Amino acid sequence: MTHLLYGFPHPDLASPELDASQTSPLVPGAMRLPEIAADSAASLLMLAPAGSVERLHDMALALMALAPGAPFTIMAPMDRGGSRLARELAAFGCVVSDEARRHHRICTGERPATLTGIEAAVAAGNLQPVDAIFAFSQPGLFSWDRLDPGTELLIETLSAEKMRGLKGAGADFGCGWGGLSRAVLESPHVVSLTGIDVDGRACEAARINVDDPRFTAAWRDLRASGPDLTGLDFVVMNPPFHATSLEDRGLGQAFIEQAGLSLRKGGRLWLVANVHLPYERALDASFARWELVEDDGAYKVIEAVK
Ligand SMILES: C[S@@+](CC[C@H](N)C(=O)[O-])C[C@H]1O[C@@H](n2cnc3c(N)ncnc32)[C@H](O)[C@@H]1O
Known about the structure:
Blueprint: E1 3-6, E2 21-22, E3 43-47, H1 52-65, E4 71-77, H2 82-91, E5 96-101, E6 104-110, H3 118-125, E7 128-130, E8 135-137, H4 149-158, E9 168-173, H5 179-184, E10 190-197, H6 200-209, E11 215-219, E12 232-237, E13 242-243, E14 246-247, H7 249-262, E15 263-274, H8 280-286, E16 289-295, E17 299-305
Parallel strand pairs: 1-2, 1-3, 3-4, 9-10, 9-12, 10-11, 12-15
Antiparallel strand pairs: 4-6, 5-6, 7-8, 13-14, 15-17, 16-17
Helix pairs in contact: 1-3, 7-8
The site of S-adenosylmethionine has 20 residues, from helix 5 and strand 10.
């Protein structure tokens, strides 16, 4: 029987079974919770996500996957859903003991024979059509139900005149649900576009939303290995700047470095970022030249040439 692990709980708080299978959608290659047979898993250790709809959805799926009577430990930082965990699990029909440690709440219990309220939690957090963006999306994805204003500024900048500069083979680093990729493919000169995201749910949504044979989505961590994409003509990106909710400028800088490695000489990077984010040094290190193309006070668009 499979032991389930979700995320990376701090080792001082709990240790996963040695052979536990990772189920977080943020770990490329992880088992997908909706695909695990109901009532089948031996145990669960979960660091639950912060967003409440996402957390309820993933806890519901994980509990369904557990065999009745199987033990679970579910935790979350106090200020990121932890204070609500015990109540949420009780509403699913679980009897839990609730402990506070290292700014976390840790709930332990056993999967009850009968779960309650599971279907509603799963339906609310599933991939779903979102009219406002004419796309399928899912709670937990970046800007899941609206086009991010930074992305919008980049799309506007790339459109019209400059869209003509987008040609050949390209990539969208951190493609999310695919709004930017969809706009890039409006250029008839683009021959292929690879959307890369560390979130498997984003890749799944992008595959549906970017309905174009030139598009492929890859579930990959751009920091984990050297690029398997090289010689690209262009890269577009709205790089992430939160890692586990703490601002992590290094993540955006790593995206820029990967773009430099993936582009051919003369290839172009189009990047949008919050104006205060310091990407200039990373751009200097990987690109021959770059210029600020737009600045609306909140976001800046940069074009860099390798
Ligand atoms: C700011 S969002 C942009 C999403 C989308 N391109 C848009 O404009 O709405 C950054 C994206 O990068 C993804 N991401 C974060 N860390 C990553 C990593 N290490 N490797 C690949 N993608 C990552 C996130 O899942 C998220 O979808």
